[in-house]
Amino acid sequence: KSEVECLIQLFDTLVSKSGNRFAAAGFDRDTFSDALHSAFGMTDDMMMDRVFRTFDRDNDGCINVVEWVEGLSVFLRGTLEERIKYCFEVYDLNGDGFISREEMFQMLKNSLLKQPSEEDPDEAVKDLVDVALKKMDHDHDGILSFMDFEKAVRDENLLLEAFGPCLPDIK
To answer: Domains in the chain and their CATH numbers?
Structure first.
């Protein structure tokens, strides 16, 4: 109860600071991104956008208090089951229930550091996508279903954030 009350207080603080058009209902993507950045050190705009979309259950462009508390509950304290579902939703860029080769490519390309010496960094990313598919695509259909993703993560927990950091670290 006290944790939920603290989350609600934090929500109210963020709403009052945001001063945006959603102030009566909640706060927008910019306020949310600032909160993720300051509290959890997230810097990847694409990943913060995906996390926002996962929190924003009703897709109204605004995080309300219920979405905030429920989202942070999974984000900070979720069971492995909840976190697998959450990460899958973050990585499923088009919301079709699968993580395609193109979606993997976009996320990995976005989250990897660029090495100036590399001839074609896209080639390295394509190689990583191939490795990820080989390791995670259990039914060998060229895309990751939720069942593929869940099995891969249960076999190897480190694969939970295989396509970019979307959960806070232990600290």
So the answer is: 1-77 (1.10.238.10), 80-170 (1.10.238.10)
